[in-house]
Amino acid sequence: MSDYLAMLNWTSGDGNFLAKQYSRTHEWHFDGGAVVAASASPHIVPTPRSSPENVDPEEAFVASLASCHMLFFLSIAASKNFVVQSYSDSASGKMEKKPTRQLCNQKVFLRPVVKFAKGTLASEAAVMEIHRLAHDKCFIANSVTAEILIEPVI
Predict the structure, then answer these.
(1) Is it true that the peptide bond before 48 is cis, omega within 30 degrees of 0?
(2) What distance lies between CA 147 and its chain's CA centroid?
């Protein structure tokens, strides 16, 4: 099938590594040339050893689920002749402890707002069905055990 590549670069900086006083900021490099400033979440590693301005892995996880869902939603809507004018999502992840006491994103909430072009008649039932199909097809959602709750704003 397909292979996906992401390169990660980190250097220790000036902090005392053994005392865990090193920077958690790093970069993600993608095959198309995009470089993303990344960091540990400031909810987990306090600043200045993390950078709130950078993307953290937990945010990237939520964003990848929202993005994958949106891309399938748009494709399915187009195949059903529904013209989408805009799509936004205020997605969030909920970090919780599993019974094994490990932290994980156990729930991800997708809250898409879809605006259709004037003259496009998409019933609430049709929109909900497109969301269901998009969720079923999303590669990222199919790759994780987190519960993904889709709460569209209609």
Answers:
(1) yes
(2) 13
DSSP character for 85?
E
Note the pLDDT tens digit of each residue in 23-72.
999 999 999 999 999 999 999 999 999 999 999 999 999 999 999 999 99
φ, ψ (nearest 5 deg) of residue 83? -90, 115
Question: Which DSSP helix (H) or strand (E) runs through 112?
Answer: strand 112-116
Among the CATH numbers 3.30.70.260, 3.40.50.10190, 3.90.1150.10, 3.30.300.20, which is that of 57-150? 3.30.300.20
Domain ranges across the chain: 1-55, 57-150
Q: Is the pTM of this model over 0.85?
A: yes
